[in-house]
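quick one, 273 residues, struct below
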Amino acid sequence: MGTVGLGLVDCHCHLSDPDFDSDLDDVLEKAKKAKVIALVAVAEHSEEFEKIMQLSERYNGFVLPCLGVHPVQGLSPEGQRSVTLKDLDAALPVIENYKDRLLAIGEVGLDFSPRFAGTEDQKEEQRQVLIRQVQLAKRLNLPLNVHSRSAGRPTINLLREQGAGKVLLHAFDGRPAVAMEGVRAGYYFSIPPSVIRSGQQKLVKQLPLTSICLETDSPALGPEKQVRNEPCNISISAEYVAQVKGISVEEVMDVTTQNALALFPRLGPLLQK
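---
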């Protein structure tokens, strides 16, 4: 299927976030007007799995679900903590139940921010949770949608050691040289609108366009700090990549959507429905 003029794919967003409870229909309408053709909705904890699956039914073929256990758990900012194997155990039966309807396993990964993973034991438990989810993705033949805050190199090393197949590293904050190890392993990197104010600019310069996808991470990582981000802002990511690469926005849209189709094998058939 040719992707010329097809539109944009938001490869990582949190549509089940309470921030969208009151006006999700409007948010998705604005996304469609901004030429978004698919929204990849990721999970962080098992409590939101059912909500994500319901959204994927309600907006069938537009909101595409990923289920996974994030390295940081806890519903309130004050209650946030590093993930445990117990968190994963609660999630696995639900993932198994919906495995045929998932686009990917995610959001999974490592978060070595000192406030979440201050001890070696916490880091090791995060690794074990990620290893089990990499093995799950391999068994189900699904891609991985990956978080790696303050853990760029450990995350890429673990994914390579475990033989992870199709991988998206979202909002990568590691050094560009480390990202290039991911590129050599065939991984993709998604760029959020916050790139216009973040340190990710060097990364965009160095990454080949064939390894770049677009995301919003809505409601986080918007162009303005502390302002709710929305999927329609994905055009800001596309424009920024075009500017840095010295190419047209159309080429960025085309190549990043082709990349999303290669990364997520179930995406193409869903878009053709």
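DSSP finds ten helices and ten strands in the chain.
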